[in-house]
Write a structure and sequence with these properties.
mainly alpha, Hydantoin permease, 3-stranded antiparallel β-sheet, two-stranded antiparallel ribbon, 20 helices, 7 strands, disordered N terminus, transmembrane helix
Length: 636
Amino acid sequence: MSAQRDRTITTFENLEKLKTLGFVGALAFLFNAATGPGIPFTPAYYQNPGWGFTTICFAITTFVSGFACLFIIEAIQAIPGNENFQGNVEYATLINFYFDPVKHIVGQFLLYGALQATAIQGIVISTQSIDFLLLDIFKKACGFSYQYGWMCVDRSFAGDGASSPFGNEIMIFTVGLFVVFLLVVPLGLTNLDDNVGIQYGSFIFSILMIAQWCQASVTTGIHPENVKHFRPMGSQYPAVIGTIMLNLAVTTVIPSWINIKKRSVNVQEAVWTGLIFIFIVYFLSVAMGFDNIPANSNILVILSANGAPHLLTKFTVYMFSFVMLIPSVPVNIIISRDNLVLNQVLSKRTAFIATFILPWVVSTLLISGIYIQDFQTWTSFLFISPGNFIIPVIIFFQCLKFRKAYNENKELSTKQIQLLKTIHSNSPQILEYLQNLENKKDALHAIDFHSGNGDQSAADQSMELLPKTNPATEYPVDETKLYVGRPNANEIAAPDGAVTSDKVSIHSLDSVHGSFKKRHVMDAVPEPYAEEWKDPIYRVQSTTATFGRYFATLGRGKTTPKDDFEYPADLAPESILNLQTLPKNRLYKSPPFRSVPDWLPIKPEKLAWLVLISTSFVTLMNVMMSIYSLWYPNEN
């Protein structure tokens, strides 16, 4: 066995080891991302503004969130060499790869705001819940107040229905906050794949917990009179939109899930199954007719109040923070940190301050009083809505534009080459090709002495870096006609010696100055590769792969293609000709993926516009209603 093959198998086994999240794990990952700090407030919105408006918002947002996820996944797949999701692509990496530096910074800021807003809300609600737990156990809740210094309070201090044992008192520190800090920080310092076991456990306990809440609602007696169809316009309308967006804001974590999913997981099935399951859970479990829930309060306060039906109910309320909220906080912190560091926006030290320290500082301002709900409402349309619903669609449009241009000329900028090195860090063959490509770009820049940019000596040295024609790569082409140019175009002239009547020299198709753009297209695709021709977006990729496999078959008789992650057709086409026998079970293949299924009678671009317009409309409506509630705060 050759060293080349050893390296390929090692890479394959490495990816199999790194990408371990299966279908159930995908459901757990999506469910945990969606069932976070928005859950406690949702039952109140089924009472005011009513179940009709709330359910409509949930249905629309589920549809929008699903396609936003699929659009950003297609943008991940459109990265050269990443057809089977074998690379490591973060959300902000997409922005950095497809857009200019200014747009990249804007996108990073919105992504950072969305992730940190979700983390802060998880910290605050967890702190409030644990403070109530300590109050029940020790009859006192203690903390450091801005006005009174160190203080301990009993249940009478805040009164019934308060979100925190400290009422509206501004607290700098509480014991509950310290407990949350001790639980979150160790998890936040790890990698995302180290938290997979916690995600599974959180998913299972969350289902059991919500089922118990449904049982509690029946035990206490359902009050259908509290759940109206619609109520008059008031401040709760913008709040419900913000909360639902927060509940279904999973797009920002999708790239991180793709990076660790097993190759066998069907992406479309996982996304839609997860979101539909989340919608059903919300509709069946939180539309519970409890007694009136106070404005600016949440279901946790009702369930933990005196007279609750069962000790188990109180236990599940307190476990909510440990099961649903705390595990999601480090996930948002890790993703936020990785996006900032991997794209070189901040150094590791500065990113640590921005993602680990700053959220705790902001949380101290929100751990008491009613400010957390206002924070939730405003951050939903300032950060969460753009980051999860609008930017993914814009990325999708830009990826289509890039893919069309890349299919034409195969050109990559220096920044894109550097990003691809990070994306494909587990594939030595791709890294080797990218390094050669980068050397070639440097060489072409050095030999540009005709325009006065460079010198002759640099050009002479750089010429050694350029590819040379290798006669050993000639293969007979008498079984099919080869075109060089655009698909179905007439044959065009190539550099001297590139095409002859009966042979083709593959490497000679690349001119020394890079002026001739390499393109291998056949007018008839031989079986068994005709099926690969169907996808128009990746036509060049499939065509080049077919070309390499077909001519390898002609030249060697019994050659099978190497792992797709090792020789991506759209990234290093010349390497496909250096094939070696490898069993089919060693191929790193994922199920076919399309953001919009074939049976849906609408083009992806039109559907993307529909998602973008609907999301922008909902966000604008949220802004207008929030402004309305500021002018008329007493209308609920």
